[in-house]
Amino acid sequence: MTSVETGVPVGPTDDLLPGEGRAYAVDGRQVAVFRMTDGSLRATDAVCPHRGGPIADGQFDLGHVVCPLHQYVFRFADGGCTADGIGSLSVYRVEDRDGRIVVWP
């Protein structure tokens, strides 16, 4: 099986506290994984398309993440930015699988 079929385990779920984001290397790219306050997970590109800001360090809620450098807001649903002309983030499937964070790049 390839990583596309099985996903890529990046670390223990318990290492990512609710309300925290962290960047992981996944198949040669940086992916930001966020653990929501309800325990669910979201994953996007870890680098802002505007000026390379560290997305994993941004504030977030169930629907959006804010780049910490220039406060651009990106939707978890589709990676789109709420401001025109900034670009978008790729979003990735992510799951808690038996206590491990698994990402599909």
Automatic annotation (TrEMBL):
PROSITE patterns: RIESKE. It comes from Gordonia mangrovi. PANTHER family: 3-PHENYLPROPIONATE_CINNAMIC ACID DIOXYGENASE FERREDOXIN SUBUNIT, FERREDOXIN-RELATED. The keyword Repeat does not apply. Keywords: 2Fe-2S, Iron, Iron-sulfur, Metal-binding. One of its GO terms (molecular function) is monooxygenase activity. It comes from the Bacteria. Residues 8-103 form the Rieske domain. InterPro entries: Rieske_2Fe-2S, Rieske_2Fe-2S_sf. This is Rieske 2Fe-2S domain-containing protein. The keyword Nucleus does not apply. CDD domains: Rieske (cd03467).
